[in-house]
Amino acid sequence: MTPNPYLFIVIFAGVALAFPLLPLGLAWLWRRFFQPPKPGVEKNAIYECGIESIGEAQIQFRSQYYLYAIIFLIFDVEAIFLVPFAVAFTGLPIGAFIAILVFLLLLIEGLVWAWGKGCLNWAR
Amino acid sequence: MSEIDEGLRSELQRQGIWVTSMQELYNWGRKNSIWPLQFGLACCAIEMIATAASRYDIARFGGEIFRPSPRQADLMIVAGTVTKKMAPQIVRLYNQMPDPKYVISMGACAISGGPFKQGYNVLKGIDRYIPVDVYIPGCPPRPEALLHAFMELQRKIDSQKLGGADKAEFLKPEQPSEFPVPAFGEHDLQPPANPDVYHPPKLERV
Question: pTM for the complete prediction?
Answer without folding.
Answer: 0.76
